[in-house]
Design the sequence.
């Protein structure tokens, strides 16, 4: 509006009052000059944006730590004027409606599992196994390797179970690692409900797809891995930062670990922690998986050992 008034005055030699009257702008508004100083806020926002280039202004506001209170409108104005707005990448969306996700009400009620891929400096492909808790939104595991057979997946899940307890159900896609007889037998042995999404319907696992997008945008796209071990180290650093520092919008901009601690939701009726190598559900040593398998799962494990199952 002020630019339009200035244009009229410079082009037609109008007075301030006449130009403001034609535009419909109050003269007092045109003459007002801000007395605030945004230099400190602008400097702090630029520093934070350089550290976390894919964060928007609301997440950056959480990290401001300014001596005076700064509301979100002022942060957005300075953030926009500094040219820090994050460009959104266009996404291709599937046409159709998938099954709605069930709302999780406690930790370990549902884990979501999926794979991503990337490459290291030598152009060798690597895969990332991402496991998240649907309630606390924590990334409970982020494993990096060149490939993941079903036994490698179950070893990772058993390690997480030893730390957090047994989940009630696992939601995943229809990849060969997650539909093999070994993986199905493992879920039956641990009494875990297995939910396979429909082929071509990734949003039926929408919570993990959201985490995968953040993982790709904030970590994989801005990182360079010297080798496999460097990728594992950086992935663990990012996972801890995501769980303990990064504000999550669906949790009221709390970090997932803080959200879980505030509700004391590390355990649940369906997630009994495993300690001293004992599977408390089965009453047998957790390492003696074959001795507690059902007949059908024993056949699956034997078939895998004989090389009859491919992944």
Sequence:
């Amino acid at each position: 509006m002020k630019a339009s008034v200035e244009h009229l005055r410079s082009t037609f030699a109008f007075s301030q009052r006449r130009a403001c009257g034609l535009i419909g702008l109050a003269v007092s508004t045109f003459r007002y000059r801000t007395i605030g100083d945004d230099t400190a806020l602008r400097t702090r926002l630029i520093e934070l944006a350089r550290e976390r280039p894919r964060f928007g202004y609301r997440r950056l506001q959480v990290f401001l730590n300014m001596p005076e209170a700064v509301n979100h409108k002022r942060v957005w104005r300075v953030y926009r004027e500094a040219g820090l707005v994050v460009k959104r990448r266009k996404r291709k969306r599937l046409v159709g409606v998938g099954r709605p996700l069930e709302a999780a009400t406690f930790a370990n009620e549902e884990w979501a599992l999926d794979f991503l891929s990337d490459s290291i400096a030598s152009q060798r492909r690597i895969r990332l196994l991402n496991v998240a808790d649907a309630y606390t939104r924590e990334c409970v595991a982020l494993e990096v390797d060149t490939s993941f057979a079903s036994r490698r997946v179950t070893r990772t899940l058993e390690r997480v179970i030893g730390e957090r307890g047994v989940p009630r159900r696992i939601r995943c896609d229809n990849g060969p690692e997650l539909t093999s007889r070994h993986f199905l037998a493992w879920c039956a042995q641990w009494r875990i409900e297995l939910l396979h999404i429909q082929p071509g319907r990734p949003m039926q696992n929408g919570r993990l797809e959201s985490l995968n997008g953040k993982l790709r945008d904030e970590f994989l796209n801005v990182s360079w891995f010297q080798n496999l071990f460097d990728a594992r180290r950086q992935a663990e650093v990012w996972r801890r930062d995501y769980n303990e520092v990064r504000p999550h919008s669906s949790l009221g901009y709390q970090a997932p670990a803080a959200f879980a601690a505030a509700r004391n939701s590390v355990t649940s009726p369906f997630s009994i922690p495993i300690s001293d190598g004992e599977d408390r559900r089965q009453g047998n040593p957790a390492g003696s998986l074959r001795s507690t398998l059902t007949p059908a799962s024993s056949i699956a494990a034997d078939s895998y050992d004989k090389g009859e199952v491919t992944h």
About this structure: Residues 38-88 form one domain. Confidence is low (pLDDT under 50) at residues 93-99, 265-311. The chain has three domains: 1-33, 38-88, 110-305.
